[in-house]
Structure to design on (1050 residues):
């Protein structure tokens, strides 16, 4: 079969000979065909992640942040989903042009994913040790005993107390935080180059959230992995990300290094989001609220999708889609890594 | 892997908020109830269209058999005895499906036999839905001892093999009319609906809107009939529709075994039973009632499946 | 008139700033209803919770059930709600905060303890008196997707309170009232014939709030009212709730896990852990001068959307998970995760009271905290 020849071209060695970013998404479009019409979930997204880097993708429900991740993982339901345009380069190769077999080999082994709901992601009738060991048995052909030993090792790695005693427990016997650790262990099992974490701590309590995020960041450093962190929580992002991409209605509206974004947002949507969260250390007056509702993907507003909710919107915003352009200092000085898709980014960042 | 659910949720996310900011959407979908949405879906489902046309004709035939044939199903003309092979080209004529052993038109008997099947199917379904639904609702809503008692009785009846039980019950009657068969099947059939209803009610009574109604001070009747029943109906309707086909085939089976309907009552089961003896010489006597029976059962199962798909909340 | 009688506060949980309960002994239902309908002055206690307990039995067996244990969801909680204030209750999942909400609404039957509303224990009321209480205490639910009946129109949902309490609005008046309510919560009154699934999460929550307001209640219990909503919509709903509080003179019990939002909306805050109140005080006392180690850990773990402010803050990362409420630790329930725990913590249950060392100090640390070794520590502001 030709598939075997093709797989040989997928770089196997860690680090590989590929230069440039680990993952690069270019002009990705995803749409869903529903009975009410075509929902345009992703409308031209570009981003890249390098080894050892954390990209946070921030957005609300319907922003397309999770759909983008599913397209990268190749777990989009098609139909109703469709990718009419775009490329997803992993180590320089376009994954959208690969055969199913090739993609399957990348999935789990080179790119792993962590989901929000750990309980439904684990099989309830198999022990966690079996599920962790399965990765090694299937992908590396280890014996049952060796796989179990590896499972204990992994559970130690993600700091599950008394790992060797708990390896034969079932998922429901673990707490939410511990289950999310098991999910992380599973994602790590084959030492992937890239981890996509979709709202990994949203279902967890605050005190446990901090533990899990710390663990994830620590492991990422240790393995020098790329990490895409998908979240709606501006607080979680602030802690761990290197750079942030803010999504709205299937587009990236702002991109920036993490400190910069919080200090000087260059898009009215980002600014609105930051202003609308109450602060822990001070009691303010009335909260700033972004007016209106998130857009309906069956019927995205013309021009800038944010225009009906934007305090700065003018006529041009209703007719022309703003491009994601580089943002500069007032004197024209470069701001590396900063981009904004707003016609009035100058006024927003310097105003 | 949770891929499927994840993506389903993502799609839902993606199309969920019909935002008020968009002034478009014309007035016609101003109020879109879940039933209305299901109906919109059904109208475009070919399975629904085919099955509902079939069921429409079946109902029409059983109500007005005279519209379809003028031949008597009971008067045999012995000159056709066994010689009356089907003349399929002559559609709709008295003898186009041939004649049976006593020279009666197979076509005419098919048409006149429909009524028995439809009566059994529809009546049994109505009775079991009412009885099963009521019991299931009471057991599911009140729980505790009530539930324990109802559930154990249901289990006992559920344990009785449907056909075997039907044979035993019918054996107790010497004069077996359609209504006796209806009684026998309903007597054994209510358990399925009880279980479905009970399950649905237990899920729904934990919904926040039920708590909200209680918090407003709503009484048991209001909660049951305004909040729980309308939401529990969907799975019950689906199961009942599919079960309807099953009751029709159960009637035929019992009649075939000689325990259900029997001549002079006209029914497909009776004809199948009569046709078996002549399977070597005159296959058509057996063939056409069997096809009719299968198509009818198929129609109701298809309808049930179509309704199930339309009501599936995962798609909305 | 009902006889007014004073009883001394039973010192099971020595909580000094919980005021004495003036109970009402209503001999007849009519007297009970009259007492419920009496107005309460601003700043007076309107709802007084005393030693509230809810244990869910764990049973085995199908027909003959045998109790093998109990989940101690709420295990002795006392607090007051004053007229016109917002009392925030925070805690992690499993701390019992949602069960408290259900108990206050009488949706669950309390295992022990009392909930006094205007001097009458609502856990013992029934019939007309309970119905009168229901009119005055309403609830807003967490999940806007399950809290509205999908088979009813918005008009029917918001109008249902009037069907149940016909005395509030005459029949011909109801449609207008429903439209008014839609307007009050910021929805287009023309949406009256639409169904819930035609709305987004934030709009549905507004519908839920409109239903809660319909009977013109005095108290609204909010159980995580914004946690299911998008960030940009959360602020809208919070602002709406604050506006309605002023407009209709409401008292809120605001239950949430998001500490920032609770601080924003609350006048006083109670912190719950494993079915017990760990610390309670004004928002400044709790957030700027916490004395219970759990509160400190909770506050320090909150991710702050400001990396600059973040760096100067101390973070306390707790080890382990919340123990099971079916088998809570002896003594202080927090001791298994507490860095200060000593032997005393395993044997003596700390009472919710102003710690001796702060008593009479007049400092903001002088508020109730259930810790043997209470100590002030600012974890919110950068060092």
């Amino acid at each position: 079969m030709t598939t075997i020849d093709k797989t040989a071209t997928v770089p196997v060695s860690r680090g590989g000979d590929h230069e440039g970013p680990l993952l690069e998404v270019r002009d990705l479009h995803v749409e869903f065909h529903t009975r009410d019409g075509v929902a345009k979930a992703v409308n031209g997204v570009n981003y890249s992640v390098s080894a050892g880097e954390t990209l946070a993708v921030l957005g609300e429900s319907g922003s397309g942040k999770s759909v983008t991740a599913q397209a990268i993982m190749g777990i989009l339901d098609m139909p109703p989903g469709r990718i009419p345009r775009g490329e997803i380069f992993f180590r320089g190769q376009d994954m959208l042009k690969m055969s199913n077999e090739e993609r399957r080999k990348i999935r789990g082994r080179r790119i792993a994913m962590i989901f929000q709901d750990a309980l439904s992601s684990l099989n309830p009738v198999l022990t966690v040790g079996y599920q962790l060991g399965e990765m090694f048995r299937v992908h590396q052909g280890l014996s049952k005993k060796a796989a179990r030993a590896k499972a204990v090792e992994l559970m130690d790695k993600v700091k599950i107390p008394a790992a060797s005693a708990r390896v034969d427990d079932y998922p429901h016997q673990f707490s939410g935080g511990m289950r999310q650790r098991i999910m992380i262990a599973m994602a790590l099992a084959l030492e992937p180059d890239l981890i996509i974490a979709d709202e990994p701590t949203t279902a967890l309590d605050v005190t446990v959230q901090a533990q899990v995020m710390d663990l994830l960041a620590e492991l990422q450093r240790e393995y020098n992995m790329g990490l895409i962190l998908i979240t709606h929580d501006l607080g979680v992002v602030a802690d761990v990300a290197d750079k942030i991409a803010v999504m709205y209605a299937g587009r990236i509206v702002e991109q920036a290094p993490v400190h910069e974004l919080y200090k000087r947002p260059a898009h009215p949507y980002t600014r609105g989001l930051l202003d609308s969260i109450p602060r822990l250390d001070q009691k303010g007056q009335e909260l700033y609220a972004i007016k209106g509702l998130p857009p309906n993907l069956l019927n995205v507003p013309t021009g800038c999708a944010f225009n009906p909710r934007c305090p700065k919107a003018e006529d041009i915003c209703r007719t022309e889609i703003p491009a994601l352009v580089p943002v500069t200092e007032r004197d024209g000085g470069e701001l590396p890594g900063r981009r904004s898709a707003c016609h009035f980014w100058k006024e927003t960042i310097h105003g | 892997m949770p891929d499927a659910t994840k993506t389903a949720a993502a799609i839902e996310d993606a199309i969920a908020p019909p935002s008020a900011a968009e002034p478009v959407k014309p007035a016609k979908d101003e109020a879109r109830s879940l039933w209305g949405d299901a109906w919109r879906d059904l109208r475009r489902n070919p399975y629904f269209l085919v099955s509902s046309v079939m069921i429409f004709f079946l109902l029409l035939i059983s109500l007005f058999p005279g519209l379809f044939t003028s031949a008597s199903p009971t008067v045999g003309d012995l000159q056709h005895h066994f010689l009356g092979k089907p003349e399929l080209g002559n559609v709709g004529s008295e003898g186009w499906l041939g004649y049976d052993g006593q020279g009666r038109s197979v076509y005419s008997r098919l048409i006149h036999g429909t009524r028995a099947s439809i009566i059994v199917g529809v009546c049994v379904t109505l009775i079991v839905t009412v009885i099963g639904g009521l019991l299931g609702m009471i057991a599911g809503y009140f729980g505790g001892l009530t539930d324990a008692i109802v559930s154990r009785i249901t289990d006992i009846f559920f344990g009785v093999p449907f056909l075997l039980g039907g044979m035993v019950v019918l054996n107790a009657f010497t004069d077996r009319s359609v209504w006796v068969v209806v009684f026998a099947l309903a007597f054994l059939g209510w358990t399925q609906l009880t279980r479905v209803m009970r399950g649905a009610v237990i899920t729904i009574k934990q919904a926040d809107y039920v708590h909200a109604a209680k918090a407003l001070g709503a009484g048991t009747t209001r909660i049951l009939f305004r909040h729980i029943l309308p939401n529990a109906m969907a799975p019950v309707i689906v199961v009942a529709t599919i079960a309807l086909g099953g009751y029709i085939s159960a009637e035929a089976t019992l009649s075939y075994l000689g325990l259900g309907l029997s001549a002079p009552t006209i029914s497909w089961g009776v004809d199948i039973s009569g046709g078996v003896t002549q399977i070597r010489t005159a296959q058509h006597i057996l063939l056409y009632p069997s096809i009719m029976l299968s198509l009818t059962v198929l129609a109701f199962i298809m309808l049930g499946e179509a309704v199930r798909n339309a009501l599936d909340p995962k798609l909305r | 008139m009902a006889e007014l009688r004073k009883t001394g506060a039973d010192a099971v949980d020595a909580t000094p700033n919980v005021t004495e309960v003036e109970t009402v002994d209503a001999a007849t239902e009519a007297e009970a209803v009259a007492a419920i309908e009496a107005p309460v002055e601003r700043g007076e206690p309107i709802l007084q919770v005393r030693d509230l307990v809810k244990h869910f039995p764990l049973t085995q067996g199908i027909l003959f059930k045998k109790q093998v244990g109990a989940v101690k969801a709420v295990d002795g909680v006392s607090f007051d709600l004053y007229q016109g204030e917002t009392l925030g209750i925070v805690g992690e999942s499993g701390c019992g905060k949602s069960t408290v909400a259900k108990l206050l609404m009488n949706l669950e039957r309390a295992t022990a303890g009392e909930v006094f509303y205007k001097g009458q224990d609502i856990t013992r009321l029934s019939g007309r008196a309970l119905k009168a209480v229901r009119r005055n205490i309403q609830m807003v639910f967490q999940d806007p997707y399950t809290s509205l009946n999908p088979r009813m129109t918005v008009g029917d949902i918001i109008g249902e309170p009037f069907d149940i309490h016909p005395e509030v609005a005459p029949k011909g008046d109801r449609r207008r009232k429903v439209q008014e309510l839609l307007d009050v919560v910021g929805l287009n009154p023309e949406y009256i014939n639409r169904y819930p699934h035609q709305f987004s999460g934030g709009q549905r929550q507004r519908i839920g709030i409109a239903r809660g307001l319909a009977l013109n209640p005095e108290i609204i219990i909010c159980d995580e009212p914004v946690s299911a909503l998008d960030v940009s919509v959360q602020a809208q709903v919070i602002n709406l709730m604050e506006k309605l509080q002023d407009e209709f003179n409401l008292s809120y019990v605001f239950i949430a896990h998001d500490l920032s939002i609770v601080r924003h909306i609350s006048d006083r805050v109670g912190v719950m852990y494993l079915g017990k109140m760990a610390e309670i005080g004004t928002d400044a006392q709790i957030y700027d001068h916490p004395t219970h180690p759990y509160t400190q850990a909770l506050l320090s773990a909150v991710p702050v959307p400001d990396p600059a402010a973040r760096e100067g803050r101390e973070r306390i990362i707790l080890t382990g998970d919340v123990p099971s409420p079916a088998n809570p630790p002896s003594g202080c329930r927090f001791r298994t995760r507490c860095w200060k725990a000593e032997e005393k913590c395993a044997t003596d249950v700390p009472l919710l009271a102003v710690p001796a060392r702060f008593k009479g100090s007049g400092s903001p640390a002088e508020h109730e905290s259930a810790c043997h070794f209470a100590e002030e520590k600012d974890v919110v502001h950068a060092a």
User: Anything to note?
Assistant: The two ends of chain B are 22 Å apart (CA to CA). Residues 1-29 of chain B have pLDDT under 50 and may be disordered.
